[in-house]
Specification:
single chain, about 50 residues, mainly alpha
């Protein structure tokens, strides 16, 4: 995993080493809404 507090290597170099896009390093997913969680709970038993 790329750790931001290690200053020996730049973020760019770390991402190059792991073959990751820098945009993926900075990406923060949006929280899942309560409605989506409820729907996922209802669908999960149907998917086996």
């Amino acid at each position: 995993m790329v750790q931001p507090n290690n200053h020996r290597l730049s973020v760019r170099r770390k991402c190059d080493l792991f073959q990751l896009c820098r945009s993926g390093y900075y990406y923060e997913p949006a929280p899942t809404s309560r409605e989506d969680l409820t729907l996922m709970q209802r669908v999960a038993p149907c998917t086996g």
